[in-house]
Amino acid sequence: MTLKIRLAVRDWDYMTPLLLGDxxxxxxxxxxxxxxxxxxxxxxxxxxxxxEASFSRHLTDVAEGHNSTVAIPNxxxxxxxxxxxxxxxxxxxxxxxxxxxxxxxxTGWRDSGNTWTRAILRNEGIMTDDAYWYAGRxxxxxxxxxxxxxxxxxxxxxxxxxxxxxxRSLAEGxxxxxxxxxxxxxxxxxxxxxxxxxxxxxxxxxxYFHDVGYVPGIHLLALxxxxxxxxxxxxxxxxxxxxxxxxxxxxxxxxxxDTTPFMLEEMLYTATALSPDWDASGIAANRIMISDFLDQxxxxxxxxxxxxxxxxxxxxxxxxxxA
Length: 323
Description:
Layout: E1 3-9, H1 16-20, E2 28-34, E3 50-54, H2 55-63, E4 69-78, E5 85-88, E6 103-106, H3 112-123, E7 132-135, E8 157-159, H4 166-172, E9 177-179, E10 194-196, H5 201-212, E11 217-224, H6 225-230, H7 234-255, H8 263-273, H9 283-299, H10 309-322
Parallel strand pairs: 1-2, 1-3, 6-7, 6-9, 7-8
Antiparallel strand pairs: 3-11, 4-11, 5-9, 5-10
């Protein structure tokens, strides 16, 4: 009997073979819904059985005793965060260390990406108390909502004054930098007044990879716990299908590289600068990265208690060890 899984994920290009039906399974029937915003509900009371989930929010749920979903160590979204620190083109700032004492805007305090970005600053000796933080909407097009939760600290971590969009504040010179997972509209225009903080992000990111050995995981795959427990093979089968879709997409993209003029050079650089398994799924391939993120979440005060990898991925680790 084939198990039906309703999967919710963003429009990642590597999902194309899966969406087109090129990747199939005799054990799983996937019904994929493409989503634009997160988080999405997974499990009972939701229309989804599995989906893309924030790494940090899942850890918060685990630490607080919520266990309706299980984490699968397949990181659907990965990325170096150096390039996500932006400032004005006329700003004198060009180094991470120069952010000490500055006003920094963030799109969400406990977001996985922003946690990794603050980790970059912490590695340079800039702790939370060494800058002034403001959480808010990136542009007027983004909704006004609570982006701090319980993590606000008067005089240190606050909402944007008057809910002013951060890019407007950055343009006016009140904010010195903004951390954002996605570049605002107009950023790629030749006339944009904004730039990445670091003049050579690629060099910084490559150096970071060789220092730590991984590309940070930001979103992971989550599955309804009841399904995972009744069908212990399902999590691995779902992960394998996504991995196969990724492999097929990379192979085809290397053949059909002419979608943009510099795509071939980009793929060549990735293949030579990073290890071949930089995007591998599974606990063994990601143990160091997972451990580092768990440490950052606790050190930055986002987790109310320390977590171990086994506590987060225990069910999946049992499946991997028995495979």
